[in-house]
Amino acid sequence: MVDGGALEGQVALVTGAGSGLGAAIAHHLAEQGAHVVVNDVRADAAAAVAKDLVGEVAVFDVSDSAAFDAAVDTTVAQHGRLDVLVNNAGIVMDRPEVIKRLIAAQVAAMAGEAVAPLRVLSTLTDERFDRMLKVHVYGTFYGMRAALRHMEDARSGVIVNLCSVYAYGGSVASPEYAAAKHAIAGLTKSVGAEVAPLGIRVNAVAPGFIDTPFLDPLDDAKAFLLARIPVGRFGRAEEIAKLVRHIICDATYSFGEIFPASGGWLA
Ligand SMILES: NC(=O)c1ccc[n+]([C@@H]2O[C@H](COP(=O)([O-])OP(=O)(O)OC[C@H]3O[C@@H](n4cnc5c(N)ncnc54)[C@H](O)[C@@H]3O)[C@@H](O)[C@H]2O)c1
């Protein structure tokens, strides 16, 4: 136990907790005494994380509204409460051909040569745009709605959504990701104000680039990214998990706020 049980007796649901930030957050909440419901769309990944903490696995796709409702209702039926929801599940901007074009364009620009069209948005498919919004925006919406139905009755609860530095700035490489994270910021601020009078805290964290499997598709771009991070390194999942724990356990005067953790990234 790290600080000693601030969440003792409480129940937390963390989505996308089979990897990276979600797994680190699940562990930190468990260390605080929470019973953690470990969600992921990948059953094996969720099980691997859940075996090391007090909690259980809930395998579902956050973009499935009925499945999210059922998981929250089952949790409340079994444990009598849901105190914390972390809407963390996400998918990466994984178009390696776009990254290559962007790097080539930067090299050409630095050499004073003409830059070829990047064709990022003009080659973005309906399927990719839909999926990005379904997982991030709809997933966050479904989660908040399902949790608030119980938290409003209880007049207590904490929700943390995963934004990104791309919730403030644009992303040339992945406009659909930036659009999704901007939407989550809008949801967080709006709902945060709505339920503040009930004492329910809805906030978000906005990480920069954190060293998780999420960054794997960006391998070719890592040197370019590092050059833009003032602190000179990627963040660690642990650092974001500590911030999320702080928001949940300590940030009692924060409602609809977005907490950055970006290594100084200038969006
Ligand atoms: N790593 C970063 O640099 C970074 C920076 C800013 C924000 N974020 C955000 O943090 C969150 C977690 O990212 P990560 O770095 O831990 O990524 P990750 O790829 O390591 O983990 C994401 C997890 O979400 C799960 N998942 C994906 N789609 C799902 C779905 N539809 N339903 C349920 N689970 C699903 C995956 O199976 C995976 O286990 C994402 O929302 C991401 O956008 C990450």
The CATH topology: Rossmann fold
Over all CA atoms, what is the radius of gyration?
Answer: 19 Å
Beta-strand fraction estimate: 5-15%
**Count of alpha and pi helical runs:** 8
What sequence of helices (H) and strands (E) makes up the elements?
A: EHEHEHEHHEHEHHE
Mean of all residue-level pLDDT scores: 95
How helix-rich are the residues, as a percent range? 40-55%
Proper CATH architecture: 3-Layer(aba) Sandwich
CATH class identity: Alpha Beta
Number of distinct beta strands = 7
Features:
7-stranded parallel β-sheet, single chain, Rossmann fold
Describe the structure in your own words.
Helix 1 packs across helix 8, helix 3 runs parallel beside helix 5 and helix 5 runs parallel beside helix 6. This protein has a 7-stranded parallel β-sheet, with helices on both faces. The longest helix has 29 residues. The chain has a single domain, classed as NAD(P)-binding Rossmann-like Domain (Rossmann fold). Strand 2, helix 2 and strand 3 form a beta-alpha-beta unit. The protein contains 8 helices and 7 strands. Helix content is 45%, strand content 13%. The protein is elongated and about 65 Å long. With 267 residues, it is α/β, with parallel strands linked by helices. The mean pLDDT is 95. The structure holds nicotinamide-adenine-dinucleotide (NAD). Nicotinamide-adenine-dinucleotide (NAD) binds next to helix 1 and strand 2.
